[in-house]
Design brief:
Elements lengths: L4 E4 L5 H11 L3 E6 L16 H6 L3 E5 L5 H13 L2 E4 L1 H5 L4 H7 L4 E6 L14 H7 L20 H24 L5 E5 H6 L5 H8 L17 E5 L2 E5 L5 H7 L9 H4 L1 H6 L1 H13 L3 H11 L4 E2 L3 H6 L1 H5 L3 E6 L2 E6 L22 H7 L11
Parallel strand pairs: 1-2, 1-4, 2-3, 4-5, 5-6
Antiparallel strand pairs: 7-8, 8-9, 10-11
Helix pairs in contact: 1-7
């Protein structure tokens, strides 16, 4: 079968990450860029474009100025070629609507991915990660008790929205093939993606009136956790295990009757004392040693890995998760596919240079229908 044809018109993170998931499945992803390029090629305040190279591997880059008459005609020909159009704020700014895309290709799946969607009082607003995390309630639950809310690092709202958009577009493609329907609009709001990721917080409030706030890793329903220091970093302590195993771990069999070890609910109310009890053992053992001992005992603790540790992690190495990629003449490790299939081929080609494929893509689509002269 010929590969799926994906036209990615959105810049930044949300749309391109959705497009990268199609590229992972060997789709032909044409990345539409303005003359100055996607902003992630030259991110503000950064000296490298690792983000761009990470989420744009395996794509073809085409430069089009959609604000011009010629660019609009070229865009129409590419929409007519595509199975899926990934659309974002760029098309909204160019006043290219969903009806316009549908009129150019009735069979195309129009995957709109925007901060707040196409409707509602916030529809025309832009937002970055920090605003989306704040508005979506996630920031209210992140951080230490009694301290200010904290932002998650990176682009979590954008990645989550990109996954939702990819899933919805894939489902629309299946529906089109199975039921012989025309294309349809699928719409993803990053705000709604984050608001819907608030775990049990909303339903817990509706059911009980309790407002979940910041309490580190501790859970109010009895399975609590804590991030605590050890000899060479930090470990995530999950003390919901049997007390006798914890006593063996810390080498204190004399504490088998200690309430902090025997009664999980008592531990929850006395977290500082519990951490102090574990302190002598943890401060004298490295993360690797703690993990080895916990594995032997069946205790669900976890090492807090730093970024360099990820590149040396035996599980990720065994599955060859990180791929050695050429970035402008320099070799670097980048994250690979986040899901696998039995049909995976070799790793994807590197991200394209700006406009690298403009001539070949436009020439291949030169015979398709153009914008009417009256426009």
């Amino acid at each position: 079968m010929p590969p799926l044809r994906i036209l990615e018109t959105a810049c930044g993170v949300m749309g391109p990450f959705s497009g990268s998931l199609f590229a992972d499945r060997d789709a032909d992803v044409v990345k539409l860029e303005p003359p100055e390029g996607d902003w992630t090629r030259n991110p503000p305040g950064s000296t490298h474009a690792g983000l761009f190279h990470c989420i744009n591997r395996g794509k073809r880059s085409v430069v089009i100025d959609v604000a011009s008459r010629e660019g609009r005609a070229q865009l129409q020909s590419l929409v007519a070629w595509a199975d899926v159009v990934i659309a974002g704020s760029e098309l909204v700014a160019a006043e290219i609507t969903d009806d316009t895309l549908s009129s150019w290709n009735a069979d195309v799946i129009r995957s709109w991915i925007l901060p707040f969607g196409l409707s509602g009082p916030y529809a025309n607003y832009q937002a970055e990660s920090i605003q989306l995390l704040a508005l979506g309630g996630m920031m209210h639950m992140t951080g230490d008790p009694g301290r200010e809310p904290l932002q998650l690092p990176g682009y979590h709202p954008e990645y989550i929205a990109g996954i939702h958009a990819f899933t919805a577009a894939s489902a629309a493609l299946v529906a089109r093939a199975r039921f012989a329907t025309v294309g349809q609009r699928v719409e993803t709001s990053a705000y709604e993606a984050i608001a819907g990721s608030a775990e049990m917080a909303v339903t817990m409030y509706v059911a009980t009136g309790a407002v979940r706030s910041r309490f580190q890793g501790r859970q109010p329903w009895g399975i609590q956790g804590e991030i605590v220091p050890c000899a060479d970093g930090y470990v995530a302590v999950h003390p919901g295990a049997k007390g006798e195993l914890l006593a063996i771990l810390i080498g204190r069999p004399d504490l088998l009757e200690e309430p902090l070890l025997l009664e999980p609910q008592y531990r929850l109310k006395h977290i500082p004392e519990f951490v102090t009890l574990l302190g002598p053992y943890l401060s004298s053992h490295t993360r690797a040693e703690v993990m080895h001992d916990c594995e032997e005992l069946g205790l669900p603790f976890g090492a807090v890995l730093e970024i360099p540790d990820l590149l040396e992690d035996e599980q990720l190495e065994a599955r060859k998760f990180f791929e050695l990629t050429d970035i402008d003449g320099t070799e670097a490790f980048l994250p690979g596919r986040t899901y696998r299939t039995s049909n995976d081929v070799d790793q994807r080609p590197p991200a394209p240079s700006l406009g690298e494929h403009t001539e070949e893509v436009l020439a291949a689509n030169s015979g398709t229908k153009r914008v009417e002269e009256s426009m």
